[in-house]
Each structure stands twice: as structure tokens, then as C-alpha cells.
Write a structure and sequence with these properties.
It is built from eight helices and 19 strands. With 344 residues, it is α+β, with helices and mostly antiparallel strands. Helix 4 (163-172) links the parallel strand 8 and strand 9 (176-179). The radius of gyration is 21 Å and the shape is globular.
Length: 344
């Protein structure tokens, strides 16, 4: 149930009345004397409803989410909003300014929650975001990409053992839903402790904008808002695509060093025993095969041709019904501007 409270809705010391929109700057710790703020854009509908946060750039080199939030904030359909959306396009401003996944203290912000007002820089940023934003909400959507030199197929990661969360994950409509256990110090972990249902959207690669990943993200968030009855449903709507749901995935690692030539693309199905790449030694004519260890779908892969022994090169989600998976993935290849417009 939404957190209903007769008291004023306040973020960063700023009261947000119903039916209003406000840009709130929440002070963050300075770094070498340079001030920084956590920028929140708060949209409140005239009618009661859930409170949901949408955040991006917890890792400072993950940019797709920033653009997803920008596009949603500009949509006229938000005039019909019920409840409240808190947009936080850049959580890790320090990382964004330095094109870095991490904060200047080399800590991962998504392993620093719930944080502390007197801890490290990462701990203080996590504490501010948790106290000022997360605790006010009923739901959350956190936007990510793969790490540097890797790319991810658009996918939702969530605790799908929870029926309500699974329902939202299905509503989002990404190609793949992957069950993901909670990690110590993660935003999802502390949100769960506060009964805030969360989805994590992974798509694309670090320091790049991926148009299809952005469009799927925009459409998915609008789908979730409609499912939560925060936005009205369209009078005419095509049947939504069915996501592929999987409970298990694994990174396949290179057994040798050299130059890798991939044979299977992101989003393709593989059968156990398939050769998915070749690795060639630098100074010899030896060639090594990278073999799929089980049936599944490639949901992540390395984008750099140089690999070292032990490097993660393919992320495969286990899925037994490959025929069904192939049909579902073909549907997503048809995504274009017309489909996006129809869904909004």
C-alpha cells in the first residue's frame, strides 16, 4: 500500500504541494572544497497515489538512465499523474564528472548503503540518497548499464520470488527478466528492508548512449506507472510482449589470453556445446574455442577484442525452451519509433 501521510511532503527541506513540480537541490559532501548537490525533480499529481523514485548514474559512467529520465520528465502525459515521482538523474555526480564508475575515494556507491552521515564520501552520499529519497517511497526503479568495455541486453533484475515485484517486472516489458539475489550494501537491499519494491534496469554499455536501450527503458517505466495506476492506461493498446524469465545466469570466462572473435551476438540463443567465440594467441597460430556450457541467451558480452585468461567474456542466462526464447527475442528486434509512440 502507498505510504499515506497527512503531513506535508518535504524533500531537502522543500515542501512539495500536490499538483506541483519542483527542482530540489540537496547538499552533498564537498570534495576538495568543491560543492556538490543531489538534484531531485519532484512531480506530484493532484490526486493521491504511490510515491516512486527513478534514479540513474549510481555508477558515474552509466549514462543511458540519465537520458531516459530526461525524456520521461518532458512527457505531457505526466500532467495526468496520480501520486508522486522523484526523478534523480545523477546520484553519483562525482563519478559522472570524472567519467568513472566509482567515487573519488574508489568506492562503489552501490555497495555503500544505507551509509552514514559520518562515514566515507561514498557512505555519506549513500546516506543522503537513502534518507532523503528512498525512505519516502513505495517503489523504485534504478537504471544501469554494463560496466566498462561490456554491454548488456536490456533486462530487468529483481527479486521475482516476490509476486508484486514480479508483476511490475513483467509490466516493464524488457526482453529478459533475471532473478537477482540481494547484495550486501546495495540500494536494492536497503530498499527491501524498507518494503520499497524495486526494479533494476540494465541495458547498454558504460560511457555510451544506446537508442534502443533508452526507448525500451522509457516505454518500460511508462508501463510500470500505468500498472501502478499512477498514469491512465491508453484506450487502445497492442498486446504487450512477453519477457523471458530466468532464475540463473553465469559469466563465461576466457581460458586463454589473446584476440577474441565472437561468433554469437548479444540477444542470441545458444545451445550447450556451441562455439560462441574463438581466441587467437598473439604470437602463435593456436586457436581456442569458447564453448557455451548450457542452453540459454547471451545477455551480456565483452566489447573489447583483447582478453586475458580469466576475463569474463559472455554472460549467458539459462533458458531451456530456446524456441520460445528465439520467438520472444525476434519480437524485440522490431522495436522502433512507431511502436514506442503506440505504447505512449
Amino acid at each position: 500500500m502507498p505510504k499515506t501521510d497527512p503531513k506535508p511532503f518535504i524533500i531537502g527541506g522543500v515542501e512539495i504541494p500536490k499538483g506541483s513540480r519542483k527542482h530540489v537541490e540537496i547538499e552533498l559532501p564537498s570534495f576538495y572544497g568543491s560543492p556538490a548537490n543531489l538534484n531531485a525533480y519532484v512531480f506530484r499529481g493532484k490526486k493521491d497515489g504511490p510515491t516512486l523514485f527513478i534514479s540513474a548514474a549510481i555508477h558515474g559512467d552509466e549514462l543511458n538512465g540519465i537520458e531516459i529520465i530526461r525524456r520521461i520528465r518532458q512527457m505531457h502525459l505526466l500532467k495526468s499523474l496520480r501520486g508522486t515521482i522523484i526523478f534523480v538523474p545523477v546520484v553519483n555526480m562525482y563519478g559522472v564528472m570524472n567519467h568513472s564508475r566509482y567515487l573519488p575515494d574508489r568506492r562503489d556507491l552501490n555497495r555503500s548503503f544505507p551509509g552514514s552521515a559520518k562515514g566515507s564520501l561514498a557512505s555519506r552520499v549513500a546516506y543522503t540518497f537513502y534518507q532523503e529519497i528512498v525512505q519516502l517511497c513505495d517503489f523504485g526503479i534504478d537504471l544501469h548499464t554494463a560496466s566498462i568495455h561490456k554491454t548488456n541486453l536490456p533486462q530487468i533484475r529483481a527479486n521475482i520470488k516476490d509476486c508484486d515485484t514480479l508483476g511490475l517486472a513483467k509490466a516493464f516489458g524488457a526482453p529478459v527478466i533475471l532473478h537477482s539475489e540481494l547484495r550486501d550494501g546495495s540500494l536494492r537491499e536497503v530498499a527491501c528492508e524498507k518494503n520499497v519494491s524495486m526494479l533494476l534496469y540494465e541495458a547498454g554499455e558504460a560511457l555510451r548512449l544506446d537508442e534502443k536501450a533508452i526507448k525500451i527503458g522509457v516505454r518500460g517505466i511508462i508501463n510500470v506507472l500505468r500498472t501502478l495506476i499512477m498514469l491512465p492506461k491508453p484506450s487502445h493498446r497492442k498486446q504487450s510482449k512477453q519477457s523471458i524469465i530466468t532464475h540463473k545466469s553465469s559469466w563465461i570466462r576466457a581460458l586463454e589470453s589473446g584476440m577474441i572473435y565472437t561468433l554469437k551476438d548479444l540477444g542470441t540463443t545458444v545451445s550447450k556445446g556451441d562455439v560462441i567465440a574463438h581466441i587467437y594467441e598473439f604470437f602463435e597460430d593456436h586457436k581456442y574455442e569458447v564453448i557455451a556450457p548450457f542452453d540459454g541467451i547471451i545477455i551480456g558480452k565483452s566489447e573489447i577484442p583483447l582478453v586475458h585468461e580469466g576475463d569474463a567474456v559472455f554472460h549467458i542466462a539459462s533458458f531451456a525452451n530456446l524456441e520460445h526464447a528465439e520467438k520472444s527475442l525476434e519480437d524485440y528486434q522490431e522495436l522502433d519509433d512507431t511502436i514506442i509512440a503506440e505504447n505512449l
